[in-house]
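Collaborator request log, item 7. Partner lab (contact: R.S.) asked for a structural prediction of Cyclomaltodextrinase to inform their binding assays.
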Amino acid sequence: MLLEAIYHRPRLNWSYAYDENTIHLRLRAKKDDLTEVYAWVGDKYDWDKSKELVPMTVFTSDTMFDYWECEYVPPFRRLKYGFQLVKGDEKIWMTESEFQTDRPANPNRLFEFPYIHRGDIFAPPAWVKDAIFYQIFPERFANGDPSLNPENVQPWGGIPERDNFFGGDLQGVIDHLDHLSELGINALYFTPIFASPTNHKYDTEDYMKVDPHFGDTDTLKQLVKACHERGIRVLLDAVFNHAGRNFAPFLDVEQNGEDSVYKDWFHVREFPLSIDDGIPSYDTFGFVAEMPKLNTENEDVKNYLLGVAEYWIKEVGIDGWRLDVANEVDHQFWRDFRQTVKGVNPEAYILGEIWHESSPWLEGDKFDAVMNYPFTDAVIDFFVREDLDASGFAAAIGKQLSRYPLQASEVAFNLLDSHDTSRLLSLPGGNKKKLKMAAVLQFTFMGTPCIYYGDEVGLDGGEDPGCRKCMEWDPNKQDRDLLAFYRKLIDIRKSHPALRTGTLTFLDAGNSGKLAYERRLDGESVIVLFNREDSGVTFRLPVPEAGWRDLFTGEIYKADRGTLSVRLPASGYAVLAPYAL
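Returned to partner:
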């Protein structure tokens, strides 16, 4: 066995408490190298009587490694442990300090999980597992109160530009809640709604004021109340990495320079403030002069922003925050942010915008989840760009699942497009078959799916600003077939708990466009099949149940002596559940 490839460390995603009683242990090994792995576990104060070998299984793989896992319920919420590694007749014991051929004589040099403390358990809000999110860019969703329109408002449905306005507002959202309820949405994520001179509102000038072109605090209260009455949660966008150029403290710094009482609210390298060859003399988001970076290590800044986070939860009852540019803010601020938000509403969802590997933010002391762009990339690379075959897709997803504790993956924010990317329909040049395959995977996968407004009626658009088109409300111009598809897809996810919280096992992921996986929860199994190929293919899968039904088409399949055969056309998919024949 290749011992150099074997890895484990205590805590993080390798050894963690899943709940108050259960510990998950993981170990990495070279792909297809080990034939068996056992966790050697016991209580450190009663080792001789409590020690036992617990079988581990491969819960996921990537191109290089297998990731073995087991769960164990220690009798006294503490654990000493090592591993027994098996390859054929070869057996090696792994301790905290070394590999050895003989079983360790005592537990002194084994790994340790000292104690499961309730306060240390990473416990995202349970409701997120059942959430179907819908992202709204308020300026482009619906114009419900024309009296709020900016002076230079454009006719609804015009070409989106970086600096034009169409009059979307919060009343427009209220007016169209029926559409969201009928679609099956039970959670909304809004891009920023606070006072700002731009259409996107990511350059905040007043964090305590709803943008007057969107409404006011009373309108927001009405919206949240109406959503809650329908069972819809509301997530707002917190832009705490940077403010806008019209933010009062920054205006004071511009006016008074080093004499400003707010000079330490920002990261100023040189006074007076200036811009030299496009580079401001103060830190910003990117190099955007209109977005000065906030110094979140400054106590006054921290207290102000934490007050903002607390205020809107208390004042209007929002259900959580999405955190913009979250990886560029210091970790201690986010720890304090979590304490503040959870202190007001323990069930609030804290979602960070991070586009890369995010384990430092998913240890239970900062975020509940991140926007799962690695998932987005893998899905698009497989279905749209076809840069990956099925095995490459499974490996990319396997690597992603290995990085985080299970409870983080269960509430990961799985999106396929957003206000920052090309729309899903535009990526394959309007190919609805590819869009549907990608969406079926999104809604049958581990994590929380999110629809970007308008995808369900066929809205297209390239990179910003093209992806920020006005929502299409004319039924004659909506893609009604696509709308029916999304309604059915959401209903399938809601009707089958295994699709929300079940285990994930790849059944067919070879060097082609054929992909099959199973979601299983207790006794419920759902099998999902995709054929990305340009011609029909046949799946042959070992199954315990005799009868299966396609949840989309209603077609019935019968297994023959434990083998289920399903033929899919080009760009076809199927979601199968057991059916009593």
